[in-house]
Amino acid sequence: MTTKILFICGSLNQTTMMHNIARHLHQVDAFFTPFYADGMLEAMSRRGFMNFTILGGRHRQNTEEYLARHYLPVDYGGRRQTYDAVVTGTDLVVQQNIRGKKVILVQEGITIPEGPGYRLVRSLCLPRFLANTAATGLSDAYDVFCVASPGYRDHFARKGVRPEKMVVTGIPNFDNVAAHRDNDFPYHHFVLAATSNTRETFGWEDRPEFIRKTRLLAGGRMLIFKLHPNENARRARAEIQRLAPEALIYEDGDINPMIANCDVLVTQYSSVVFIGLALGKEVHSAIDIHVLEMLTPIQNGGTSAERIADICLDVAHRSPVPRRAGVRGRQLWPDWQVRPPDRA
To answer: How many CA atoms lie within 13 A of 280 on its CB side?
Structure first.
């Protein structure tokens, strides 16, 4: 019987990562689905209230267009097939129909710092997604967690992720940044500002201050803003044109060649900071640069997807094993909560 694996997509970054992994799975029936949820989140996404997340809006549209453009087999919500394993890029939400299945979690990119939201989620047992990516890995609802670097392995272990479940594989899209140097982006030696969608996800951001800081760093050099794909582009463009009228603004396009050609990269909480660091750029971020250098994904010539694919096959072919109390199948707490720490 052919092995069947479901890939749960999300943002375009997650979707391309899933496709890249699936390319290395031969004699496997791979199916894909846009990100989905259950219960209240599903009802809210149907009404358009979750369009600022990977459940809807531009993220969902980009994923569906990508899947169609590459003629990938789609099983919406993973409901039509019985799967030997499931691969996902986030465990902030663990869907009802994959609980108890063999799950491989693949780190998508950067995780945000552990702010007040994270501390509230942990202390009050609130849903993980309220802490955003700071709560990545804390569900324990997976068999293997593929992480970007030894630094991230230590980072997740400190927060309570089981070390025995983590494997440092590197992550697709961030493991061969040298390849971005060969590009046809027309500009060089400029300052690049990569904006965020913090305001769209109900966070606070002083965008005018970010623009002023970036303009000061430019010091008369060419200044380019690359807008986050899921932010309010009309508002962002108006702010930039008011405070930095000389800047070029890109709403679309691949940011990686832009990073390869720039002299300085300015971000806040964005995975693209890892591209800049790995390429040896001068980087400015809201996160301490020394911390980011420790966390930067390993560079392995673009072989992360192949290694993750091997792990997927291994997990899919494993014999079922008894689950520990409190883990999938015999859970002692709601799955949307953070896994309680092990008792001594």
So the answer is: 2
Residues sharing a CB contact under 8 Å with residue 48, sequence separation 6 or more, in sequence order: 56
**The pair of three-digit structure tokens given for residue 86, joined into one six-digit string:** 């499931």
Question: CA-CA distance, 227 to 315, in Å (whole number)?
Answer: 38
Alpha carbons 302 and 204: distance in angstroms, whole number: 35
Residue 327, pLDDT above cutoff 60: no
* Residues 265, 292 contacting (CB under 8 angstroms): no
CATH architecture of 3-174+298-317: 3-Layer(aba) Sandwich (3.40)
Helices marked H in the chain: 12-22, 39-46, 57-69, 116-124, 150-158, 207-218, 233-243, 255-261, 272-278, 289-295, 304-317
The pLDDT tens digits for 252-271 are 899 999 999 999 999 988 89
Give counts: helices (H), strands (E), the chain.
Answer: 11, 11
pLDDT (tens digit per residue) in 4-22: 999 999 999 999 999 999 9
Q: Kindly state the average pLDDT of the residues 24-46.
A: 94
Type of residue found at 130: L
Domain boundaries of the chain, sorted by first residue: 3-174+298-317, 177-295
H/E stretch holding 233: helix 233-243
| Amino acid identity at 258 | M
Same fold, 3-174+298-317 and 177-295: yes
Count CB atoms within 10 A of the CB of residue 335: 19
Residues 194, 218: Cα–Cα separation, whole Å: 14
Residues 6+ apart with CB under 8 A from 239: 207, 208, 211
CB of 117 within 8 A of CB of 134? yes
Per-residue pLDDT for 329 more than 80? no
Q: How many residues in the chain?
A: 344
Task: Look up residue 120 and give its two tokens.
Answer: 């509230």
Find where tokens 């199916």 sit: 31
User: What is the per-residue pLDDT for 310?
Assistant: 97
Cα torsion angle, 184, 185, 186, 187, sign: negative
CATH number corresponding to 177-295: 3.40.50.2000
